[in-house]
Amino acid sequence: MTCQIYPALEIPETLAAGPGPGNTDPRVLQAFSSAGVADHMQGDILRGMIECKYMLREVWGTSNTYTFAVAGTGWSGLDTMFSAVMPGDKVVAFNNGTFSGIDALTLRIKAATPDEHAANPLDPQATSVTVIDVPHGQPVTGEMAETALAEHKPKWAFMAHWETGSGRINDLRGFSDACVRHNVMGLIDAVSSLGVENFQIDDYPGIAGWASCPQKGLCCLPLTYAPVSFTDGYIGSLKTSGAYTYVHNPIFEARHWGVIDGQDVEKGTYHRTHSGYAVAAFHESLRLTLQDGLAKRSASYRTHEKVLRDAVTVLGCNVTSDMSSLVVLNLPADLAGREMELVQNCRARGFGIWPTLSAPVQIRIGILNQLNRQAISRIVRLFAEAMREMGGQVDFEEIEALLESRYGTSIAA
Ligand SMILES: *Cc1c(COP(=O)(O)O)cnc(C)c1O
């Protein structure tokens, strides 16, 4: 066998206009690439991690001491959040799309008994987990949560805040209230909503655990940190049960962020080797979020999503989503069924939109960190062009008129 040295890997600049990752902010990349070579216990890195912890509490509106971040992607944070779920634990999980479906699988993996694992190792059918399937494109409502929790009386209940698979917002208020009423510990996949929507953890007392990601609302793709937050109730349960993991156990993992025995300490302790580059990037992304302010940023998402939504509607598409960072749509009748082809054509030229990953096939166009006239106009034009190329009816003048009427006066470019 010959061993080849390949040419240096070059990755082109594309327009990341999908559900995530979003375009990493240049400030974040700058912080990432200008960090010096330093070991993981160097003083500024440890200080940076402590500052991240405090900024994260501020961004997320919480006094939960166990608010920190887990090295990796969104799934790393989610795995950490699910670590306190033990074999045989009673769980109710809502599945209304690709991501909550994988979350529900994770919960079945965590709650399955050894016999259940042996019977179906990759898809254990844990009898203690009730998965409530909500059809694609529909939200989880407070009523659904109330009914299911009243009936099953679980220890844990799970829901995605924003289901990115179908672009739907689930009823966090109703879910949290149902958890409080039935004394259930709520777990939330907030991967898509953190840094986009203006909400505060401490307004939702039914939720015991939260997990998010770096690459969506925080505009921080360079493999960094997935934010998590846990109430004292969650940590108390974890202390009693333990967890079948070292590196994703929140109690161990929080130590490097300066949380020991439920207390903030001045310095993190060695736990595993964190990267100064990642810490610098994450730190900058949190500074950026706080400087923007979530109220302003979330309003900006709504404004620009509305322009994109109205533009694709003018093109004859039917929008079925209600997230502010993402538009999920069906093509007009004359192009129906060719969604995947259109997505592939766009991706081939560096316009990175996405199909849905579970049936039915729809198109997903995201605007993460694209909050200005130029970026949204570019997305609209590229999409219209792709439709026209496939033989769709496209009135470019009408599209330009719409962009001008929305951006010409009131909204700053
Ligand atoms: C993107 C996403 C995930 C997965 O996050 P990764 O960073 O890709 O690991 C999980 N849940 C939801 C709701 C998501 O949108």
- Provide the low-confidence segments as ranges: none
Bound molecules: pyridoxal-5'-phosphate
Question: For the record, what CATH class of the largest domain applies?
Answer: Alpha Beta
Q: Give the CATH topology of the largest domain.
A: Aspartate Aminotransferase, domain 2
Radius of gyration: 22 Å
Structural class by secondary-structure content: alpha/beta
Number of domains: 2
Total beta-strand segments: 17
| Count of alpha and pi helical runs | 14
GO molecular function, one term: transaminase activity
InterPro entries: PyrdxlP-dep_Trfase, PyrdxlP-dep_Trfase_major, PyrdxlP-dep_Trfase_small, SP_NH2Trfase/AEP_transaminase
Protein name: Alanine--glyoxylate aminotransferase family protein
Cofactor: pyridoxal 5'-phosphate
Write the layout of secondary structure elements.
Layout: E1 15-16, H1 26-34, H2 43-60, E2 66-71, H3 74-81, E3 91-95, H4 98-111, H5 114-119, E4 129-133, H6 142-152, E5 156-160, E6 162-163, E7 168-169, H7 172-181, E8 185-189, E9 207-211, E10 225-230, H8 232-241, H9 250-253, E11 259-260, E12 263-264, H10 276-292, H11 294-314, E13 318-319, E14 326-330, H12 339-348, E15 351-352, E16 354-355, E17 363-366, H13 373-389, H14 396-407
The chain binds pyridoxal-5'-phosphate.
Residues 20, 73-75, 99, 160, 164, 189, 191-192, 213, 215 line the site of pyridoxal-5'-phosphate (PLP).
